[in-house]
Amino acid sequence: MHFVSTRGGVAPTALEDAILAGLAPDGGLYVPETLPQAAPIDDGPSDIRSAALRVLRPFFVGSPLASQLDDIVAEAFTFDAPLKRTPEGLQVLELFHGPTAAFKDFGARFLAAMLRRLRSGAGTLTVLVATSGDTGSAVAAAFHRMPGVRVVILYPDGRVSPRQAHQLGCLGDNVTALRVDGSFDDCQRLVKAAFADVELRARCPLASANSISLGRLLPQMAYYALAAARSRATGKGALNVIVPTGNLGNAFAALLARAIGVEIGQIVLATNANRVLPEFLARGDYLAQPSVATIANAMDVGNPSNVERLRWLLPRIEALRAAVSADWVDDPTIRARIRDGRARYGEVWCPHTACAVEVYERLGRRGDTRTWTVAATAHPAKFETVVEPLIGAPVELPAPLAAMLARPASAEPLAATEAALRARLLATD
Ligand SMILES: *Cc1c(COP(=O)(O)O)cnc(C)c1O
Prior knowledge:
Layout: E1 2-5, E2 13-14, H1 15-21, E3 30-32, H2 48-56, H3 69-76, E4 83-85, E5 91-94, H4 104-118, E6 125-130, H5 134-143, E7 149-156, H6 162-169, E8 175-181, H7 184-196, H8 198-203, E9 206-208, H9 214-217, H10 221-233, E10 239-244, H11 249-259, E11 264-271, H12 276-283, H13 307-313, H14 317-323, E12 325-328, H15 331-345, H16 351-365, E13 373-376, H17 384-391, H18 399-406, E14 412-415, H19 418-426
Parallel strand pairs: 5-13, 6-7, 6-9, 7-8, 8-14, 10-11, 10-13, 11-12
Antiparallel strand pairs: 1-2, 1-3, 4-5
Helix pairs in contact: 2-3, 2-10, 3-4, 4-5, 10-11, 15-16, 15-17
């Protein structure tokens, strides 16, 4: 199996090289050269590791890592993605049982397990990431204490939640958190400049862990395959899923899983007020927008990078509209869904999951009686400053999050200039 670029300007590339490169050299995103087919569903009991192997194995055919895929999966997938059924009949795919309590743990841990095996030579590899919140902590936790690797995270000072900042700064050891005097866009600009700096990269080998990485995208198919198997085992048929969406990584994994034969029916994207995807589907032409700040901040994206992959998979607008639909939710409605979540479903939602729940309720009002599954992307305790005032009660912390918050945290200040980042990367710790 080889990978090509969405922009068509790259020769077929091996999986390992595509993962190490991050972005394709022509500026596009890596996609499989052809769509493989997953093995037929096994009607026995399914677990996350066997579901992961079912969807990942075809992408590893011919790779030197194919023989290590079992070990990689065992190392990365150390927690479950339970499919719960609420008294109301809604199914909830809980993706927040990993170390940092958001779905990004699946992708970050798989990428880390891959890079551990791909790292060449004796020098230190620096994993460099800009984060607006959840990505940075998932990546930092996944690479924490990995020999030969250091992690440098840039985040906008004062613009992530206090708990998110704490999660970024509390690991220490090989993880350095840099609080940048600027915006998330500044952080991304600095990271891009570092990757473009050939001389810097010769002295300080860099690896990317951002959300366009194939090493994060592919493993996200696993929990959809698992949920599809569990849904089928309970007689519910194909999985109809509503996915909270920002950069479109998670939802694209669902589309890819369905394209390779996983038993998924409808896929619906739920965005916050950043509504470029619903508008794209409605109008037929894609128009990026400046992002707007919402209380579902991990989805504040005005130009989702994986749109390029979406258009590669479904180039014709009619086919795209048949394959996926999308709807958006404003902040007051997100608040309302969090407020009534306990009474209606016995659940406390994070603001991102609440967008999907609202879209589910709209489907019901239009008379849709199918069984739906909402992807719950984060634990509500990560967003306690939004959630607790709405439900009027504290949200209990999951154990891994409580352990992280109990550690002292610190971050180094960084000016928002390329020179400052360069100097910090070249300094010996
Ligand atoms: C990152 C994130 C999202 C958005 O996922 P994409 O893959 O960027 O679409 C949704 N919810 C939470 C909690 C997140 O951390």
